[in-house]
Write a structure and sequence with these properties.
Elements (H helix, E strand, L loop, with lengths): L5 E11 L3 H7 L8 H4 L3 H5 L3 E6 L2 E2 L13 E2 L2 H9 L3 E3 L9 H14 L3 E3 L12 E3 L5 E7 L25 H18 L4 E7 L10 H12 L5 E5 L7 E4 L2 E4 L4 E3 L14 E11 L5 E13 L5 E4 L6 H12 L6 E2 L5
Parallel strand pairs: 1-2, 1-13, 2-5, 3-4, 5-6, 8-9, 9-10, 10-12, 15-17
Antiparallel strand pairs: 1-14, 7-8, 11-12, 14-15, 15-16
InterPro entries: Capsule_synth_CapA, CW_Biosynth-Accessory, Metallo-depent_PP-like
Family: Belongs to the CapA family.
Protein name: Capsule synthesis protein CapA domain-containing protein
């Protein structure tokens, strides 16, 4: 697409996974407020043209049936506060999508919409199924969202949908296959998108290395030319990024916020995350180039689950882990903070 040169930035994060203790720490007594926990990333996200989150929880419209153990349903204020931080959209396809059932699916979409946040992922009707989230920026962006499963109780069966909701297969990458995702991306471009971002909930939980499935899918999608950026989540650890066919795949952005960590039996890296910022530049001939910077983050469980920016001087061990992980795939991404 020929036209006036333009540049936008897209910032993305890893899993927003509010365990019950995270919600407890956000409680005000009369509601919930997550801004203190998330405030540190506001300058990055709000300063970007588009901010995208990975929402690994249902949302409750009336703050009932909230998270218990590993069944996630979060207060409506979470969406309000994600919007305050600067997020324009969220991926909602993950293995906890169905934790609150059909009601949770419906309410999640409503709560996000009521707070001005676009949802890329499963819809509560066949008519709305498969539609991307779209972002009207100087370079138009569409976002698609897929997961290995939508039901945590049967997460090993990667093609089954809840009874009565067959259209949810549109968000299962094992059911769609690479060809189906590429076809979705091409439809988004035919509808006017210049860039297609694909959010993928994939890989092995607590695995620092990418799986054969991630590698194969990432290669096929980016080499097709139809998909421009892949944002990965689910492993709960930061995994390498790579640049394939001039396009980035972030295999896993780790956790933005959760209570995971060594104190609860998770790997030390489960407190690490990344705010990745992709710079997309279009020249006069319509060619779009990419560059990538990232800000390591760390969840301070002892400070009411506050997300802090990890640097060489603040949480240096977390910073070093994240930089090493991001660099392991030969990616040309640069950390936002100096390395010394």
């Amino acid at each position: 697409m020929r036209g006036k040169p333009a540049t936008i930035t897209l910032s993305a994060i890893g899993d927003v996974l509010p365990h019950s203790v995270v919600n407890r720490d956000a409680s005000t007594g009369s509601g919930y407020d997550y801004t203190r926990q998330l405030e540190s990333i506001r300058p990055i996200v709000s300063g970007s043209t588009i901010g995208i989150c990975q929402l690994e929880t249902a949302l409750s419209a009336d703050n009932t049936r909230l998270t218990q153990k590993n069944t996630f349903n979060s207060p409506r204020e979470l969406a309000r506060d994600l919007r305050k931080i600067g997020f324009d959209g969220c991926s909602t396809a993950n293995n906890h999508t169905w934790d609150a059932g059909a009601r949770g699916l419906r309410e999640t979409r409503k709560v996000l919409s009521d707070n001005g946040i676009a949802a890329a992922g499963p819809a509560d009707s066949a008519a709305a199924s498969g539609r991307p989230a779209t972002y009207d920026a100087p370079i138009k962006v569409a976002q698609l969202s897929y997961s290995y499963s939508l039901m945590n109780s049967i997460e090993q069966d990667t093609t089954v949908t809840p009874s009565g909701f067959p259209w949810l297969r549109d968000n299962l990458y094992a059911a769609k296959g690479a060809a189906g995702i590429i076809a979705d991306a091409r439809r988004a471009k035919a509808a006017g998108a210049e860039v297609v971002v694909v959010s993928m909930h994939w890989g092995g939980q607590f695995q620092p290395t990418i799986s054969a499935d991630q590698k194969r899918l990432g290669d096929e999608l980016l080499r097709s030319g139809a998909v421009d950026v892949i944002l990965g989540a689910h492993p709960h650890l930061v995994q390498p990024c790579a640049k394939i066919n001039g396009r980035y795949v972030l295999y896993s952005l780790g956790n933005l916020i959760s209570t995971q960590g060594t104190a609860v039996g998770s790997p030390v890296g489960a407190q690490d995350g990344v705010v990745a910022t992709v710079r997309l530049s279009r020249d006069g001939e319509g060619r779009i180039s990419q560059s990538l910077t990232y800000q390591p983050t760390w969840v301070d469980r002892g400070d009411r689950h506050k997300v802090v920016l990890a640097t060489p001087d603040r949480q240096p061990e977390s910073y070093r882990r994240t930089v090493a992980a991001m660099s392991a795939g030969g990616c040309d991404a640069k950390p936002a903070q100096p390395t010394s």
